[in-house]
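Predict the 3D structure for this chain.
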Amino acid sequence: MDNQQIIAPSHASSGTRPGTPSRARSGGVLHVNVRHTSHFTVVGNHLAQHQDLSLVAIGLATHIQSLPAGAKVGIKFLVERFPESEARIAEALRELEENGYLRRDRERLASGRVITRTTSYNQPCTEAVSPAAPTPAPAPARVPARVPVPAPARVPVAPPAPAPTPAPAPTPAPALPRPQAPTPDLHQRASAILLGLRREAPVLVLSDKDIRSLAPAVATWLERDAVPETIARALTTDLPVPLKYPAKLLAHRLSTLLPASVPPAPFSPPPVPLQNCDDCDRAFRAPEPGRCGECVAESSVTT
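Done. Predicted structure below.
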């Protein structure tokens, strides 16, 4: 990259003071030329007025030529410096490479790290400039025959890569419950509950096929003494947003939230009915009408 230089001022037209614009014969640009004494860069008209380069490429070449040696000119640094996008800056760099103003070479360091060497030309470079070839190392001295040659170092062999762990099989969806004693009335009540869900949650709009598929599961809830309000609350509370598959969600809840079966009530014999005694007309419990126990005892004593 060129060092900054001082150039001589342009010849002023006769009768024009330095720092005043020169008069143009037609309505065009007017130049006010002030001599630079520091902080300037010489840029050739072959770059500033290039016919094939874009305005972004010309400006980017001028910026790179004004930088000191060793300055960062990677795409990431340029994106942080200028408002143009990464794609536009990358395209401008390619334009400069194609027209001989820039060259980028990838080089691997001794540490194994790969870096990019950028070379900027203030004159178009028509031939590829190859990087300086490294100085060849001197040939090793011949080892006398009596000196044993050390055995080559053993190269460690990397262990075989472990076999990929198979992906777990998807968990099958639980089967829908079915009532133990289905009846037409039970099925009708279950269908009515499913149809009424849209009043609680408008997203739960079911088709006839969905209702026929889900009605046995709702009937199982009814068979297990679940009231319609409890079933509707379990199926409409905390719905996900958005809800894409209402029938699948209801099937999952009807299977996983199914209440436990109600055990049958223990058998108890019916109570012994009350009877009125034929003698004293007092009430007593007996399977059949007759006399109470006291009247029977008194009759035995009298006899």
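The longest strand covers residues 102-108.
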